[in-house]
Amino acid sequence: MTKIYAIYGASGCGRSLMPVAREHLTRLGIQSRIYFIDDRLTEVTELNGHPAVNYHMFKALPYTNKFVLIAIANSQIREKIAHRLENDGVHLWSVQANNTIIMDHVDMAEGAALSPFVTITSNIKIGKCFHANLYSYVEHDCVIGDYVTFAPSVKCNGNIHIEDHAYIGTGAVIKQGTPDKPLVIGKGAIVGMGAVVTKSVPPGVTVVGNPARILEKR
């Protein structure tokens, strides 16, 4: 075999994405072992029925093409790992559950992790290493940057722009923008669990509540 696959991260995020990765390969008719990569390891072990190694061990495996899904919740770490993989000639790997729905004219960069019951509708552009957890959706005419994370059940309605490294918490609802004035979630912003976002969010702030307001630091 010339190809090998791995999930980078063996915590809860990685372990929950491993079944998605398995069914993704099965759907494509690819028979291959999938490794966990955990840099805390010093020797080969087993986790949930899969071999687990550190990155140096994985890199040394005798395969021509290596594909890695980064299952790290922290988007800054996700970016650092992505750069390391690219510098080492390791491919970013995108996976999606069998019941993920992707509709028309969706441009999605490599490295995406789409969990079960995720829906991506039409005319949408998504950047690198996007994480969309269970039951989240992205509606029409949205633009999502690199290393954006959706926790479970995020409702991202139409004409929304989400900039790099934004984090959208569980159950958050983002109001639909308009074609001439999209609602914007700024770079590195955090939308709290259950927040209802009715207007644009500046970069780097945290918003909470209904309607969502900036959480002031004390």
Could you please describe the fold and organization of this structure?
It is a single chain. Strand 5, helix 3 and strand 6 form a beta-alpha-beta unit. 16% of the residues lie in helices and 31% in strands. The longest helix has 16 residues, at 12-27. The mean pLDDT is 96. The protein is globular and about 50 Å long. 38% of the residues are buried. It has an eight-stranded mixed beta sheet with strand order 7-10-13-16-19-22-24-25, with helices on one face. The chain folds into two domains: 3-93, Rossmann fold, CATH 3.40.50; 96-210, Hexapeptide repeat proteins (UDP N-Acetylglucosamine Acyltransferase, domain 1). The protein is α/β, with parallel strands linked by helices and 218 residues long.
How does the SSE layout of this entry go?
Layout: E1 3-8, H1 12-27, E2 34-37, E3 45-47, E4 50-53, H2 55-60, E5 65-70, H3 75-87, E6 91-92, E7 95-96, E8 101-102, E9 106-108, E10 113-114, E11 119-120, E12 124-126, E13 131-132, E14 137-138, E15 143-144, E16 149-150, E17 155-156, E18 160-162, E19 167-168, E20 173-174, E21 183-185, E22 190-191, E23 196-197, E24 206-208, E25 213-214
Parallel strand pairs: 1-2, 1-5, 2-4, 5-6, 7-10, 8-11, 9-12, 10-13, 11-14, 12-15, 13-16, 14-17, 15-18, 16-19, 17-20, 18-21, 19-22, 20-23, 22-24
Antiparallel strand pairs: 3-4, 24-25
Pfam family, one: PglD_N
Protein name: PglD N-terminal domain-containing protein
Family: Belongs to the transferase hexapeptide repeat family.
